[in-house]
Design brief:
Blueprint lengths: L3 E7 L14 E2 L2 E2 H9 L5 E6 L11 E3 L8 H11 L4 E6 L7 H9 L6 E6 L2 E2 L3 E5 L3 H9 L14 E5 H4 L5 H4 L6 H13 L4
Length: 200
C-alpha cells in the first residue's frame, strides 16, 4: 500500500513500568520488533516518534522526535503526520505486543472518504490503533497549541468511521489484540496470552 504509513508512538515516560515499554519482551520477541514486523509489509514507510532516537535506528525505520513536545500521544501523532508524505497513517502505541498487520491493512482500506478510522468496542475507542489522514494535521496542531491533549478532541470536526466490535471480532480475541503493557502486571498477563497462542 504505497499511500500509507505507520506511526509508532514511543515517547511516553514509562512511569508505571519503570523502563522503556517498547523494548520489553513478550515471549522471545521485543514488542517494538514485533510491531515493526507486523506493519512493514502493509505500509510504505514506518516512523517511530521517540525522545530516544538512537535506540530505534537499528530497526531500519524513520525515526523522529516531537515538534511540539510535552503534549503526550497527540504530539507524537503531530510529528509523524508532519513528516510523512502519505495521505493516511495508521498510528499505534509502542506497548501493544499483539499488533495485527492484517487489521491495520483493513482499517486503512476503509479510510478513503474519511479522516479517521477507529475501532470501537461499545463506548470504548482505540485511538492508538487507528488510521488518521494527513489533513487532520491543522486540527491536531490547534489542539496542541491550546494544550488540549485528548486525542479525540478534534473528532467532531472531521469525518470519522467507527469500526464496531462485531467487525473487529473476526481478527480474534479483542482483549489480546488491543492489549497494552503499562505495568508489570500487564506484562505478566501478556506473557500468559503469548503462551496460549502463537504470534499472529
Amino acid at each position: 500500500m504505497n499511500t500509507t504509513a505507520a506511526i509508532i508512538l514511543a515517547g511516553g515516560r514509562n512511569s508505571r513500568m519503570g523502563r522503556n515499554k517498547a523494548f520489553l519482551k513478550v515471549g522471545d520477541r521485543l514488542i517494538i520488533e514485533n510491531t515493526v514486523g507486523q506493519l512493514r509489509p502493509v505500509v510504505q514507510e514506518i516512523i517511530v516518534v521517540t525522545n530516544e532516537p538512537e535506540r530505534y535506528r537499528y530497526l531500519g525505520v524513520t525515526v523522529t522526535t516531537d515538534i511540539i513536545p510535552g503534549r503526550g500521544p497527540l504530539s507524537g501523532m503531530h510529528a509523524g503526520l508532519t513528516l510523512t508524505p502519505c495521505p493516511y497513517s495508521v498510528v499505534v502505541a509502542c506497548d501493544m505486543p499483539f499488533i495485527n498487520g492484517g487489521l491495520a491493512r483493513e482499517l486503512m482500506a476503509l479510510a478513503p472518504g474519511y479522516d479517521v478510522v477507529i475501532p470501537r468496542m461499545g463506548n470504548h475507542l482505540q485511538p492508538l490503533f487507528a488510521v488518521y489522514a494527513k489533513r487532520c494535521l491543522p486540527l491536531i496542531e490547534e489542539c496542541l497549541r491550546q494544550d488540549i491533549r485528548k486525542i479525540i478532541a478534534f473528532f467532531p470536526k472531521v469525518r470519522v468511521r467507527y469500526v464496531e466490535q462485531a467487525d473487529l471480532a473476526v481478527w480474534g480475541d479483542l482483549e489480546r489484540l488491543f492489549c497494552n503493557v503499562n505495568t508489570p502486571q500487564d506484562l505478566d498477563l501478556a506473557a500468559r496470552m503469548r503462551e496460549e497462542s502463537n504470534w499472529d
